[in-house]
Structures are given as C-alpha cells and as structure tokens.
Amino acid sequence: AGCEKEPSSYMWIYILLGNMLRGIGETPITPLGISYLDDFAKEENVPVYVACLHTIAMMGPMFGFLLGSLCARLYVDIGFVDPGSITITPQDSRWVGAWWLGFLIGGATSFLSAIPFCFLPKSLKKPEEANKDKTSHGLLENTGAVRNKLSPEKTKPRKWSVMLKGKLLGNRMYFTFLCCSLLQFSSFIGFVTYKPKYMEQQYGQSTSKSNFLIGMTSLPPVGLGIFLGGLIMKKYKLSIIGATKFSFTMSFLSYAIGLLHFFVGCDNHVVAGMTVSYE
C-alpha cells in the first residue's frame, strides 16, 4: 500500500524555477556579449574572440559532467546519515547519488562569476580603423537619427507578429541559419542527455563513470573544433560566402561520421515480457 501512494514532494517546482532564473541570467551573455565584441574589437580578431567565448561555454558542461560524476559517487543523504551505515555501493541499482549537491556548487559558482560583469565599463574606446556605420552601436545611432526625422504617423509601434513576419522570418538568410541552429542543438542536446543513460544500460557502467566519460570524450573536441574554426576564419579572412561553404563542408562531414553511431551498440538485455516472452 505504501508503494501505491502518490509522491508528495514538490522539489521539482524549485528545480524548475531555479533553471528558469538561471536561463534568464545566462541569456544576455551570448547575444550581447557577441555584439560587445563585434563593436569594440578589430574586425579580423572578432572570429577568434567569438570562438574563445563559445569554447569556454563548452567547457562549462564538461566540468558539469565531471562534477556530476563526483556527486554520483556520494550517497544522496550525505551529511544526514552515517557513511558507515550505508551497505550499498554506486554499482548497486538502488544507489542514488547526491544529485542536489551539484546545484548548490553550480549556483554559488554562477553567482560569484557574475560579480565581475558589474564592473565592465559602459563603453570602450573603439579601434581607429573601425567603421562606425558597420558597428551595431553606429547602426543604432543612425537608426535613431532616421527615426527622429520620420513623421509621427510613421513611428507608430508595430505588432510583434508583423515584425517577426517582415523582418525576421522574412529574411531568408536568418531563417535558414535559425533552422540549422535548431537542428544542431536538438541533436546535440539529445546526445548529451541520453548518452550517459545509454552507456549505463548497454555497457553496464555506473552513473558516475558514464558522466565522467561523456565529460572527457564528447565536449572537449567540440570546444577544440570551435576554437580551430575561429583561427581558420581569422587566418584565411573568410567572407560570408566562404564561411558558409566552410560551415557546410564541416557540417556534412560531421553528419557522415555521425552515421557510424548506428553500428555501435550491444544486444538488448533479456527482459521477460519486453524482449522475450515470460516462458
């Protein structure tokens, strides 16, 4: 009767709200950070700086998996029970790691790393050879100047639906880039989310070891690839068309190599009622 009772814990609400707040705080870094670099860095150095930004962003999940591997080795009630009284090991299917410990460490680290952003200057000295009209700041100033010259009838607020249809979704280059990004992130998130569980089920690895292997083998090559891509763009000074061809070639090679995953795996476990009959 006790097993049939509905769970009464609402911890998932706190995790949901915490992730929501974390997302709100992290969102401005990528769009505004890239614009900040594009405005105040030399044009030939922007690809390297952006590559460094994304490379460091990839190191975060890597350390997160390593931290998760460490926390999974600790019992879920660490600090509340006597370690000597625990009779099971991480290899036991009944073992539950200290999943909550990673949230505390990650939250404290995020809070401390956000403090230096408060001391960034509002504006930096732009490179002398930079063309003001090419920077987002210059475009905003020019847009504001033009907007001031317009009549009041032409400055009416536009609806979001009209702006999305006319400016964003109507731009073929932006729409194509958006679709590519959705496909790439969908595949990457699915890979990172389910690969540890797949390694546990198919290869009999513990949760701790699965997270460790994912963090050490999957994410560092991605960060290295982003950094090398930035160096290549800076060295050969690729134009938009050249960068598009380069991106297409690398994406196609990644897709072709990714097909090899279909040939990796083990036979299904013998489970009565699922893979074999009860008889």
Automatic annotation (TrEMBL):
GO terms for molecular function: bile acid transmembrane transporter activity; sodium-independent organic anion transmembrane transporter activity. The keyword Nucleotide-binding does not apply. Signal peptide: none annotated. It is a multi-pass membrane protein. Belongs to the organo anion transporter (TC 2.A.60) family. One of its GO terms (biological process) is monoatomic ion transport. This is Solute carrier organic anion transporter family member. The lineage of its organism: Eukaryota, Metazoa, Chordata, Craniata, Vertebrata. It comes from Promerops cafer. The chain crosses the membrane at residues 12-34, 46-76, 96-120, 173-192, 212-233, 245-264. It is found in: Cell membrane; Membrane. Gene3D superfamilies: MFS general substrate transporter like domains.
